[in-house]
Amino acid sequence: MILERICVQCQTHLLCTNLIVLYMLQKVDFPLTNSQISEFVLDKEYTNYFTLQQALSEMENANLIRLEKEHSRTFYHLTEEGAETIQFFQNKISPTIQDEIDTFLQEKHYELKNAVAVRADYYRNDNHEFSVRCQVTENHGSLIDLTITVPTEQEAKTVVHHWKQKNQEIYAFVMQNLL
Question: What three-state secondary structure class fits 18?
Answer without folding.
Answer: helix
